[in-house]
Design brief:
10 helices, alpha/beta, 252 residues, two-stranded parallel ribbon, five-stranded mixed beta sheet
């Protein structure tokens, strides 16, 4: 029931991402803007994720007291970035992956095990009944003072381990493999978030992006936030994956 006369602006993802998709979206937005005489604004994809925690609908709103400034951990298939968000449009990068993103690490491991895509969902599901200590995987840069991340070594270690297992062993120990691998990623993400909180003294945190749908990451984040007295905003799953609402909010 919305007409073009009711629309006051168009927000479009302009970067970063797959260039073909971005070109289609931006050209479409520009065309609609010209035809209807309304402004359009290009929005950074990661900024949309950072603001997802501030969205509101009939069943979700951010926790009481959650507002700027806050720590934002944006974790997806292409990004693992840790920001200090001071106000709308004002963000400071504290750390990011030096190689692979956490989401890619999940997807590649799922492919190694012959699970489906997207891999993160499949690993999360298989890990529910697994032992997180069954296999020892490396935690890249976890002891470094830097707030950067690294997951390429984890992927290599997983590949080497799986090469030593038979197909039957992989299948019978799938839950333990997924739980142990997932734990290595989650432990690094949580530890870097904890270090960032200690450095910035910020008590408002959000974890967003596709990987923030991971059940183990959400549980550990809630546990650490409770232990440290932080206010944690975890968007519902519909706002974790790429969505138009977060881009619209950033556009506003």
């Amino acid at each position: 029931q919305v007409t073009w006369k009711m629309v006051t602006g168009i927000a479009v993802t302009s970067r970063p991402g797959l260039i073909g998709s971005l070109l289609v979206g931006v050209v479409t937005a520009k065309t609609l803007s010209l035809v209807h005489g309304i402004p359009f604004v290009g929005v950074n994809h990661i900024e949309g994720h950072l603001l997802a925690a501030l969205l509101k609908d009939s069943t979700y709103s951010p926790p009481a007291g959650f507002d700027f400034p806050f720590l934002g951990l944006a974790v997806s298939g292409g990004h693992t970035h840790l920001f200090r968000a001071d106000s709308p449009g004002r963000y400071f990068l504290l750390g990011c992956t030096v190689d692979d993103a956490a989401g890619e690490a999940f997807d590649k491991f799922a492919k190694m095990l012959g699970l489906g895509f997207p891999g993160g969902v499949e690993v999360d599901r298989a890990a529910i009944h697994g032992n997180v200590s069954a296999f020892k995987f490396p935690r890249g840069l976890i002891h470094e003072d830097s707030l950067n991340f690294s997951f390429s070594g984890l992927k290599t270690a997983a590949l080497r381990l799986l090469e030593t297992l038979s197909a039957a062993e992989k299948e019978s120990r799938k839950a333990d493999l997924c739980a142990s691998y997932q734990e290595a990623i989650v432990e690094v993400l949580i530890e870097k978030l904890r270090k960032a909180a200690a450095q910035t003294k910020l008590k408002n945190w959000t974890i967003t992006g596709g990987v923030s749908a991971n059940s183990r990451l959400r549980a550990r984040a809630a546990q650490v936030a409770a232990e440290t007295g932080a206010t944690l905003a975890l968007p519902p799953l519909r706002y974790c994956a790429d969505n138009a609402a977060m881009i619209g909010l950033a556009g506003l």
